[in-house]
Design goal:
This protein is an alpha+beta fold. It contains 5 helices and 12 strands. The protein has 2 domains: 119 residues, Outer membrane lipoprotein wza domain like (Outer membrane lipoprotein wza fold like, Roll); 73 residues, wza like domain (wza like fold). 23% of the residues are buried.
Length: 249
């Protein structure tokens, strides 16, 4: 027996089928609105933290430092060259080579380091053909953490904007708040915080990332920043005083 129809010819079963998706959509909308209302407030810089965010590229902050791996090739003299995989600069940012000895490179640009290494060989060789190269950057790193595909540290090879730094983390996770990405810069016992939009990118995403900066992709929802942010620092041994985050997150 066919089910009864209303005066418009619509069966009760058909009405239920139409109402259920509408009800589900309404519930989802209300839940989303409730979560948006409960989202933790955005973090702000601690009182007294200097304003250092700049859109003007500054290559001088990317000088060589302790832990960087470099390679030196002396044409015709493999015994004076570094291994193919390079050598690591010591804790003072110095390179130790056979014959040429200890060469201080801390803070130097690649071109300046190339001249310094060439000068070291000039002292005991006539017209040496010396090539200097950076193999791997370890001293100048930033971090991408939070709701991102590949969180962790990344070396800074050249002046980098916040949006470019964010792209090193890969794809966003589903819970990521794409419109509120935070660049967190430690300053001793304080923190400087800058917010930019990755969903609709604007000029605020063009600030330069400096060594030690943290690009933080927050989670949508009710979790407090302090509870989400601080645990992310532990696996990478990032030193950010917990007291500094009390007024930030």
């Amino acid at each position: 027996m066919c089910p009864p129809h209303d005066k418009d010819g619509q069966s009760p079963r058909g009405l239920v089928a139409r109402v259920r998706p509408m009800r589900a959509a309404l519930i989802a909308f209300l839940c989303a609105m409730q979560m948006a209302c409960k989202t933790a407030p955005a973090p702000v810089s601690t009182e007294g933290a200097p304003a250092t965010m700049s859109m003007t590229p500054d290559p001088s902050v990317l000088g060589l430092g302790a832990g960087d791996v470099v390679r030196v090739d002396v044409l015709g003299h493999p015994e004076l060259s570094t291994p193919a995989e390079g050598l690591r600069l010591d804790d003072a940012g110095a390179l130790h080579l056979p014959v040429a000895g200890t060469i201080p490179l801390d803070g130097l640009s690649i071109s300046a380091a190339n001249r310094a290494v060439g000068d070291a060989f000039d002292r005991f060789m006539k017209d040496p053909d010396v090539t200097f190269a950076l193999v791997r950057r370890e001293s100048k790193r930033f971090f991408v953490l939070g709701q991102i595909q590949t969180p962790g540290p990344h070396g800074i090879e050249h002046p980098l904007t916040a949006l470019e730094a964010l792209s090193h983390g890969g794809f966003f996770l589903n819970a990521a708040d794409r419109s509120h990405i935070f660049l967190v810069r430690p300053h001793g016992t304080g923190l400087e915080v800058h917010c930019f939009n990755a969903e609709t990118p604007g000029p605020e995403g063009l600030v330069q990332v400096l060594p030690g900066d943290i690009v933080f992709v927050r989670r949508r929802g009710t979790q407090r920043f302090q509870e989400e942010f601080l645990p992310l620092l532990q696996p990478w041994q990032i030193a950010v005083p917990a007291a500094a985050t009390a007024g930030v997150f």
